[in-house]
Design a protein that fits this description.
about 200 residues; Nucleotidyltransferase, domain 5
């Protein structure tokens, strides 16, 4: 049986801390999609680290839940090209990324020991929803990662701040217009009174 796994990670560097999390959507033939997400205990160093950790967490989660069992084939779809090439064995991890090489080795070993075959495919990230299941699942994985990491909350807070500032600017502009209108009307009334005196 084929299990298609869509993973994504969220990484945002803030003034106080670095937010990072993962999200996944797993599509199993004849079953509703499985979803899972979580925040990393330790902030990921780079976006590539985060994407790789997202795959590792998703694989372990699927195995613990019994979704991935012996005889299944896992097809990973990820929007990080280096990670996809590493997982597919198409490229070697450089020595300076020894920590990532260890994670890849661990994931491969777990899948092999479980009796699960695997493959990896790059998919373009952050696409506009065109109704296709692939894009829908990838966008959902991205959203789950953002929510889990707290990035989505920060985005929402920034939206509220922008709206508040915009309303304040509109209120100030309206007050200035009202003040100018009052001055014009006062000047017009003064002109009419002078005309009557003459």
């Amino acid at each position: 049986m084929k299990v298609t796994l869509y993973t994504d990670a969220s990484l945002s560097t803030g003034k106080q801390r670095k937010l990072s999390g993962w999200g996944m959507v797993a599509v199993v033939e004849g079953m509703p999609p499985w979803e899972a997400s979580g925040a990393f205990r330790q902030p990921a160093a780079t976006s590539t680290h985060a994407e790789l950790y997202a795959i590792a967490n998703a694989v372990y989660w699927l195995i613990r839940q019994g979704v991935l069992v012996t005889g299944h084939h896992l097809h990973i779809r990820c929007d990080n090209e280096p990670v996809v090439k590493w997982m597919a064995g198409e490229a070697k991890v450089k020595q300076r990324n020894a920590d990532m090489a260890q994670v890849i080795t661990m994931v491969r070993r777990v899948l092999t020991d479980t009796g699960v075959g695997y493959s990896a495919e790059w998919i373009r990230g952050h696409q506009q929803d065109n109704g296709s299941p692939e894009v829908t699942h990838q966008r959902r994985a991205d959203k789950l990662a953002c929510i889990a990491s707290g990035v989505q909350e920060r985005r929402n807070q920034n939206k509220v701040k922008r709206r508040t500032k915009k309303r304040a600017r509109v209120a100030q502009a309206t007050a200035r217009l009202d003040e100018a209108r009052a001055k014009i009307e006062a000047a017009q009334r003064g002109g009419k009174e002078q005309a009557r005196l003459l």
